Amino acid sequence: MTAKILMYSTAVCPYCVRAEQLLKSKGVTEIEKVRVDLDPARREEMMQKTGRRTVPQIYIGERHVGGCDELYALDRAGELEPLLRGA
Predict the structure, then answer these.
(1) Positions of E strands within 10-84
(2) Of 60, 56, 70, which is closest to residue 14 (Cα–Cα)?
(3) CA-CA distance, 31 to 51, in Å (whole number)?
(4) What fold does the segment set 5-84 form as a domain?
(5) Three-state SS for 43?
(6) For the whole model, what pTM was predicted?
(7) Percent of the chain having pLDDT more than 90?
């Protein structure tokens, strides 16, 4: 897997944990996590980039895939692994 993963998250978010578990089950070894609960400026950045207030907000490469539910939907549709490979 070659695509860079960026995840905006908080410390106590069960959806963040589920999203990370799915990504790791697909062979992802490195996730850049941005803790928006520790840095209000990064939360503002997330909201500007995504138009959303909730976490997780996940980027695979340059593509914003959304949150945990969208990540699982991509997996069910067979689209997650090609994204992770950078295809």
Answers:
(1) 32-35, 57-60, 63-66
(2) 56
(3) 22
(4) Glutaredoxin (3.40.30)
(5) helix
(6) 0.93
(7) 94
